[in-house]
Amino acid sequence: MGAAMIIQGMIGKSRISRDGNRAQGGFSLIEVMISMAVLTVGMVSLLGVFGLAMASTQTSQQDMIARQLADESYESIVTARNTTQVNWDDIQNVGATDCTITGATTCGIFPSGLRAIYNAGADGIYGTADDSAAGEQTLQDPGPDGVFGNSDDTYLPLTNFQRSISITGLTDANGNTFTSVRNVIITVQYVVPQTKTPKTYILSSYISQFN
């Protein structure tokens, strides 16, 4: 009877010892490796999101510049019409044949196709044939102090951008051309730095012969 109690006591102590070792034991090698794998996947995903955010920020800036270049072209055309700086025959692409004002064979001052971004030439209108003599346009940045007009201002070239201006007549359902209204489509194209693929911004509007 006494020997049985001693044996049971030893068995109980052995179980307590095993349970205590199990409670104090650390992670196994497999558990550590799985944890590291999960952490690595999470970090890679986070870096991918960060890179995408940076790329989106850069693309947004390029989109803003493209929109500004298109807007300034259209505004210069409208201003030239309002100030009678050019006549209605001039507000067409080079080689147009709708020259009812001057009676010339061909007219128009806006070259067709994508062209480099130049400053406005002698006529003060962006996108006309005399712009190339005025030099390539740059974007002025205020510099570290954030104030325009200081000595730390920087000028960014717009060599990554091209612009085209298309001015065409409008027709009705019977094919008759409206002589006093034309369609203006200004296209600005640039290459996305991250993907090296072209992206296009298009401004489509109308212009009337009259103010």
Termini separation? 120 Å
Report the count of strand segments. 6
Shape: elongated
- Low-confidence segments, ≥5 residues, pLDDT <50? 2-7
Instruction: Enumerate the strands of the largest sheet in spatial order, edge to edge or round the barrel.
Output: 1-4-5-6
Helix content: 25-40%
Number of helices in the DSSP assignment: 2
Structural class, from secondary structure content?
A: alpha+beta
Tally of discrete structural domains: 1
Tell me the β content. Answer: 15-25%
Summarize the structure.
This protein is α+β, with helices and mostly antiparallel strands and 211 residues long.
Structure description:
This protein is α+β, with helices and mostly antiparallel strands and 211 residues long. It has one domain. The chain is built from two helices and six strands, in the order ααββββββ. The chain has helices at 2-24, 29-82, and strands spanning 115-116, 138-141, 154-157, 161-171, 177-191, 198-208. The chain has a four-stranded antiparallel sheet with strand order 1-4-5-6, covered by helices on one side.
